[in-house]
Amino acid sequence: MDEDKISSHAELKRFFQEAVSHLLEADPLLSDLHPQVTLEEVRVLNELEHGRAMKVYVERADGGLWGVVVPREATVRDLKLALKKHVALALGRQGVRKTVSWKYIWRNYWLALDGESLKNDNGRLLDVGVRHKSSLSFLKRHRERCAKQLNRGGK
Questions:
Q1: Which residues contact 54 (CB under 8 A, 6 or more apart)?
Q2: Phi, psi angles (nearest 5°) of residue 124
Q3: SS3 state of residue 49
Q4: Vertex 150 angle, CA 146 and 153, to 5°
Q5: CB contact at 8 A, 113 and 128
Q6: pLDDT, tens digit, 9 for 90 and up, residues 27-40
Q7: d(Cα 47, Cα 70) in Å, to the nearest integer?
Q8: Band of the pLDDT at 143, cuts 50, 70, 90?
Q9: What backbone torsions phi and psi does residue 95 show, to the nearest 5 degrees?
Q10: Less Cβ crowding at N or C end of the chain, within 10 Å?
Q11: Closest to 41 measured CA to CA, from 33, 51, 29
């Protein structure tokens, strides 16, 4: 009897996912969402559509882009958290089991807009010039570390 429940539950789950996929493909607003969309993704897309959020692109090391949606009043810290969630979700959907060491990344790289690093995590994105469809990149922090070493006498 338990096996019947398991197989019928699996069938129901598959049927539900197929139905959601079909609805997403048919809707022009939602057609770019992944078939295993989360409630958070739908909420964020709704905020974007109503102008209460903005999409910011972050360049990857391989030349690709991550499109991250954040509220219009978001700070640099909010963007970093949204990027972390976005990357984890994207990697999970690709079946990648590796995790990203965000501590390492933020210790070694700044997010940068037009070559200008976003150093203040509490700064509002709009105040530092980040707008809807802005493109950010990672900027190596080695210059700052080298300056610190020089101040300590090369140690």
A1: 48, 69, 70, 71, 72, 125, 130, 131, 132, 133, 134
A2: -70, 140
A3: helix
A4: 140
A5: yes
A6: 877 777 777 778 88
A7: 9
A8: low
A9: 80, 15
A10: N
A11: 33
Q: Which residue has the tokens 């699996």?
A: 10
Q: Full-prediction pTM beyond 0.85? A: no
The tokens for 149 are 């070493």
Residue 35: which H helix or E strand, with range?
none
Structure tokens at 131: 């707008």
The torsion angles phi and psi of 137, rounded to 5 degrees, stand at -135, 170
Task: Give the C-alpha separation, 125 to 137, whole Å.
Answer: 14
Report DSSP letters for 86-151, one per residue: HHHHHHHHTT------HHHHHHHEEEEETTEE---TTSBTTTTT--TT-EEEEEE-HHHHHHHHHH
* Residue 65 to residue 52: CA distance in whole angstroms: 22
CA–CA separation, 113 and 128 (whole Å): 9
The token pair at 46 is 């709704």
If 0-12 CB within 10 Å is exposed, 13-18 middle and 19+ buried, where does residue 37 land?
Answer: middle
Report which residue type is found at 129: G
Phi-psi region of 51 (alpha: psi -120 to 50; beta: other; left: phi over 0): left
Whole-number Å distance between alpha carbons of 51 and 85 = 21
